[in-house]
Design a protein that fits this description.
The chain is an alpha+beta fold. The chain is built from 21 helices and 23 strands. Bound molecules: adenosine-5'-diphosphate.
Length: about 625
């Protein structure tokens, strides 16, 4: 036996941990059983790490020790013990990893709490996976004993009641790995019953890569289900595996089982979630796919395995192309990863294409939840641009809210005389009702695509045209509809109209680029449109959000010369000598267009003028 320095030291938890412990201990958490999932998940991580070290490091403690997790329960006394033969921890590691926020899960959990301040949704604790500390939901005191795989490391005991401090002492521990044990609070004594614990393991931890024993009986299924043949896996197995992998409570929207041979070789089981998974944003930049080599887990945080615009995909990928003892660092810079990424990209895009053709309802859900991410691909992946454009679905004036159409289907519905694909960029479908530029299209039964994602403003110019049909914003000047047409009859004579336009230009000065006749307006007297080579107003609004200093460009004021108000205005200008009223009305009309676009920064002057106008009007009707 080695000499033991039995000195117990007391340490204080860092502030964030105290805060976290406080929340966990004082909250009546609705799923206390997740502490089992968290502890098993930590043990499994520790076992993955040692399995890896065994391949790459010459000297480790107990190299022959079987990799396993043992849960030992004493139902009588309510004692829960979990032990693994994983990587273990040195004393320093215990202090830094258990007493500090060492991992992103806890950090982002706390960040979220801080942002929300009040009304903490306690379910979030489970969703963010606060890990080890979740044991303090079910016990008042925890003891952790561990010994690192490093041959020179000593055993360590950590003990805490989860309040302000913890105690550490060196102990004699013969084998590598970690043991955690505690007495369950009276109301949680059920978690020391083998049947109950087995059931929980089946629910949350069935696919852990190492055997889990409960009182010496093995309970989980360990198999690389992605290596099985498609016909051999049931829908339930697929769904369960997905839930285990992502923490999602819903089954996936769709899955893709790949067995690729050739330039690269791998098996993969990939999932498209129905909606963002619980850890979606936290994991977006790296944790999308768990990478295995020769059935051995290698890493779950390779940022290069999927392009950014496909990072809604979750799953596992297993390849035999890496040598057995490859290190994480070598993988990071391996050309194999970019080969895998290329194959995955093609396969996933093809799969989405099939889904869009065969399962329209599912695909609509997908577009609704992840369309925005997918669109980003158009800006970064020119090789696959056309494929991605085929996958874009949009809402449209011909469809109900939250129904989507592909560009191809839109074209199949185009009117005979229609040369372009019409679209409008708007912040929401409901604010469309205010857009006078839409009137012409609704009246003449032209379908208009409704684009509501901020990124649309950036990608439409990149799409430019589809199947030979240019994409045209309804908010822009367009020769296709600004020609004089069959509706000319009710319009002002061109000569009179031009006089009015000239006067309007004079009044509005450099606030507008030009004043001209409109053919798109039906009910509204005027509207603002963008010049042909400019951005449409909605895009500019978005640019302004992105860049506060963005200067919105000048617009053209289009005038509906068949509108009674405009006709009256022309009469007042030419026949009556009331220029001050005419000018004021022009100001008011211009003001309306700003209101509709949500662009009014200084309303006082307009309101003052409006009141002058109302005064004139009331004077007229006053019977003196
Ligand atoms: P997470 O597991 O999400 O990182 P935890 O709070 O559960 O967060 O654990 C913090 C850290 O403590 C882990 O990242 C790991 O380094 C270490 N740890 C926890 N449990 C074990 C274990 N059974 N074996 C080895 N290290 C562990």
């Amino acid at each position: 036996m080695e000499a033991i320095e039995n000195k117990v030291e007391e340490f204080e938890f860092v502030a964030e941990i105290k805060q976290l412990l406080d929340i966990i201990i004082n909250s009546l958490y609705t799923h206390p059983e997740i502490f089992i999932r968290e502890l098993i998940s930590n043990s499994s991580d520790a076992l993955h790490k040692i399995r890896f070290k065994r391949l790459t490091e010459p000297e480790i403690l107990n190299p022959e020790l079987e990799l396993r997790i043992d849960i030992t329960l004493d139902p009588e006394n309510g004692i829960f013990r979990i032990e693994d033969t994983g990587i273990g921890m040195t004393k320093e590691e215990v202090i830094t990893q258990i007493g500090t926020i060492a991992h992103s899960g806890t950090a982002s959990f706390l960040k979220n709490l801080k942002e929300k301040q009040e009304n903490i949704d306690l379910n979030l604790i489970g969703k963010f996976g606060v890990g080890f500390y979740s044991v303090f939901m079910v016990t008042d005191e925890v003891i952790l004993e561990t010994r690192s795989y490093l041959p020179s490391a000593k055993g360590v005991r950590w003990k805490s009641n989860g309040r302000d401090t913890y105690f550490i002492e060196e102990i004699s521990r013969p084998n590598r790995g970690t043991l955690i044990y505690f007495k369950l609070k009276e109301e949680f004594k059920d978690f020391a019953k083998p049947e109950k614990v087995k059931e929980i393991i089946k629910k949350y931890s069935n696919f852990v890569d190492f055997p889990i024993f409960v009182n010496n009986e093995k309970v989980n299924t360990i198999e690389a289900i992605w290596r099985k043949k498609k016909e051999e896996i049931s829908k339930k197995e697929i769904d369960d595996f997905y839930k285990f992998l992502t923490g999602d409570e819903k089954p996936p929207l769709a899955h893709l089982h790949l067995s690729v041979e050739g330039n690269v070789n791998f098996n993969a089981l990939l999932f498209i979630p129905e909606s963002p998974t619980p850890y979606y944003w936290r994991d977006f930049f790296d944790k999308t796919i768990n990478l295995y080599s020769h059935k051995v887990f290698i890493q779950d945080d390779n940022p290069d395995i999927l392009p950014e615009y496909l990072r809604f995909v979750r799953g596992v990928l297993d390849t035999d192309d890496f040598p057995l003892n490859i290190s994480r660092e070598t993988i990071q810079s391996s050309p194999l990863i970019s080969k895998i990424r290329n194959v995955l990209t093609t396969k996933i895009l093809n799969f989405l294409q099939e889904l869009s053709e065969n399962e329209k309802d599912k695909y609509s859900k997908f577009i609704h939840n992840f369309g925005q991410i997918l669109k980003g691909g158009i800006t970064i992946d020119s090789a696959n641009k056309d494929k991605i454009i085929n996958l874009l679905w949009y809402q449209s004036t011909f469809l109900k809210e939250n129904e989507y159409t592909s560009l191809k289907d839109y074209i199949s519905r185009m009117k005979e005389d229609q040369k372009s694909i019409f679209y409008v960029i708007t912040d929401s479908r409901s604010s469309l009702n205010r857009n006078p530029n839409l009137e012409y299209f609704l009246k003449n039964n032209y379908e208009v695509l409704i684009m509501t994602d901020p990124i649309d403003a950036l990608i439409v110019p990149l799409i430019n045209e589809y199947d030979g049909k240019p994409l045209k914003s309804i908010d822009k000047v367009d020769t296709e509809i600004t020609k004089r047409s069959e509706t000319d009859a009710g319009k002002l004579e061109p000569e009179i109209a031009n006089k009015l336009f000239d006067h309007m230009k004079k009044v509005l000065g450099d606030r507008v680029l030009n004043v001209q006749e409109s053919n798109r307006l039906v009910e509204s007297p005027v509207s603002l449109v963008a010049p042909y080579f400019g951005y449409d107003p909605q895009s500019e609004k978005i640019f302004k959000i992105i860049d506060k200093n963005y200067q919105v460009s000048k617009k053209i004021l289009e005038v509906n010369t068949s509108h009674p108000l405009i006709k009256n205005l022309a009469k007042l200008l030419i026949e009556n000598n009331v220029e001050h009223i005419v000018n004021n009305i022009i100001e008011q009309l211009y003001f309306q267009t700003l209101v509709l676009e949500g662009e009014i920064s200084e309303p006082t002057e307009y309101v003052k003028k409006m009141n002058e106008l109302l005064q004139e009007f009331t004077n007229k009707f006053l019977i003196s």
